[in-house]
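Re: beginner question about structure tokens

> Can someone show what the tokenized structure looks like for a real chain? I only ever see the sequence side.

Sure, here's an example I had lying around. Input first:
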Amino acid sequence: MRFNLYMDILEKTIYVVATPIGNMSDITYRAIHTLKNVSFIMAEDTRVSSKLLKHYEIKKEMVSYHSHSSDVKLEQLLSRVEKGESAALISDAGTPAISDPGVALVSKALERNLNVVPIPGVSAFTTLLSVSGLPVNNMLFVGFLSNKPGKRKNQLTALYENDKKIIVFYESVHRIESFIEDVCNIFGDNTSIVLGRELTKCFEEIIRDNAKNIVDIFEKKDKIIKGEYCVVVDNR
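And the corresponding structure tokens:
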């Protein structure tokens, strides 16, 4: 029997497609095939995703779906699929529905008994964990905490007290320094941290050190370091 490398694109189906987190080469053949052959693509930010589609010469209708999309927009997209179309859901980077607004769309699609198919690939937190050198059999993925300083400190305190395991966070460039300071103050100066910035990109940086030393690194920087961050905290 001949092995079907890509599998046929099905009607009335939403494909949750992982895309690169930086390096354009980090995408699967199946993901490219899916994006080329679905009826339309739902993207978190069409301006960001258009660069990926252009790179792989994918000419496909693309519509926006993000955290501020209305219920009416969601209804319109799901109705198209219910009527027989196929769709791919992609985020700006990585795997959709992981700390991502796509989870609401997937949840609603399942409630309506639509077919939802994963097209797996890269994710920032699994990328960093794979080179952290830490055991991840007892790991908690948290993603983004509150952007309000007081609430974030309360969330970190609760995690410190209740989750004695490896904990993984996402943080933006605008809050990373204060986030690390909070970790240092709440978890302790000697808490082991693995910090990843611009993973898979030209200026990828991975720092393995204790919380206090990483605070010092940020304090010595004379300019804002661009990039999205993934942070692994050892709270064992």
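Each token stands for a local structural state, so reading them left to right follows the chain. The helical segments are 29-37, 46-55, 71-82, 102-111, 124-130, 149-162, 176-187, 211-220.
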